[in-house]
Amino acid sequence: MDSMIRGFFQGFIKIHILHHASTDKIYGLWFIEELKRHGYNISPGTLYPIFHTLEQDGLLASDEKNVNGKIRKYYKTTSKGKSTLKAATTKVQELLDELLEEKKNKRLRRK
Prior knowledge:
By secondary structure, the protein is an alpha+beta fold. It has helices at residues 3-23, 28-37, 44-56, 79-110; strands spanning 60-67, 70-77.
């Protein structure tokens, strides 16, 4: 995959993470399955460094829980993460509105 496209997708994945972790605690394997529903095929070796970077940046906080004898790390969006998500959502909405308006205008010009 082209590195530019990969960078775009990683940005989308970060927004997905902040969104889901703002509504409930998430963990890696569950989130990999969630991303598959959206057409992303991401490995743990790609996802966990993203989680760790978001945590280091103060956008996520984690806690560990013993689940069936294994330690599972859960992530939740911090207040900084929530404000970052809000700003990202605004920017995504502005872009989406612009893209859809252009598409609508192109259809109208064809008629």
